[in-house]
């Protein structure tokens, strides 16, 4: 009976899904072109496109700016935005709470501690990514364990535990910075959320895992629809609820840890984008997951453009831009929920 209700009321059709993803892809491409065009040295989009056909010629300086600076930064922004959006949506689906997301749950703070320790011991990009993932996974386990009451998940306790755990790990971050060397103090600005350190090495280390994890989570989109009706109902319909949750929490923590290791803490993306997507496309996770991936990438590219242009030639951390947008939305959702 429940399965029939879900199928009957499902808004998903192949045509609707294709149209939605096509529009979001076009939007992402348009914003991406703006992202590599805008900066301290403006390079017109027409000139960039013309250089591909030979109709226009880029100077050596313009080519260096595009290929070595703006293109890696653009790709990293898309990976970070897409990964955080998918992770936030999955946490909200499993916890059945629209306020859950990596930053609020404290998972990003755990990744920050792992990243700082890796930087302090000069572990390299791979070691930094692994250390950041370990920190994120540790916080996820702590918060999840605290929120368990008699075998049941208390979502209010989960959010409070996430906020307090995040505050504790933020204090640890300040302690590490205070006792370590000057190089680590210089990393503080980067850890506020900064994409200026984008490199091909960082993208190749993080990108495949973020993309693969997102694809695996997308495969479970139908299971998230069933889990949203309640764990018992999902079990009756054949969903391995415990297995799906464990895998999803692991992959969500992996995405968060990897993203933090290369971009610092970029908060509220996992809160804003899933909420917007639900308003636009409804509750079906078969639409929400790919839509959040594309819209999250678009949003962070826009935020990065603002971070580079609002106080140009100075640059503000992209995490400050997302927080300025996300904090009011969090308060709005908190009052409504």
Write a structural description.
The chain is an all-alpha fold and 337 residues long. It has one domain (24-336): ABC transporter involved in vitamin B12 uptake, BtuC (Orthogonal Bundle), CATH 1.10.3470.10. The chain is 78% helix and 1% strand. The protein has 15 helices and 2 strands. The chain has helices at residues 2-9, 14-37, 45-53, 60-95, 107-120, 124-147, 155-179, 182-191, 200-219, 221-227, 231-236, 241-263, 269-281, 285-309, 318-336; strands at 148-149, 152-153. A two-stranded antiparallel ribbon has the order 1-2. The longest helix has 36 residues, at 60-95. The chain is globular. The protein starts with a helix and ends with a helix.
Beta-strand content estimate: under 5%
Category from helices, strands and their pairing = mainly alpha
Radius of gyration: 20 Å
- Can you tell me the CATH class? Mainly Alpha
CATH hierarchy: architecture: Orthogonal Bundle
Low-pLDDT stretches are 1-10
Mean pLDDT: 84
Short description:
The protein is mainly alpha-helical and 337 residues long.
Question: What is the topology?
Answer:
Layout: H1 2-9, H2 14-37, H3 45-53, H4 60-95, H5 107-120, H6 124-147, E1 148-149, E2 152-153, H7 155-179, H8 182-191, H9 200-219, H10 221-227, H11 231-236, H12 241-263, H13 269-281, H14 285-309, H15 318-336
Antiparallel strand pairs: 1-2
Helix pairs in contact: 2-4, 2-14, 4-9, 4-12, 4-13, 4-14, 5-6, 5-7, 5-12, 6-7, 6-12, 9-12, 10-14, 13-14, 14-15
Provide tags for this entry.
78% helix; 337 residues; ABC transporter involved in vitamin B12 uptake, BtuC; disordered N terminus; globular
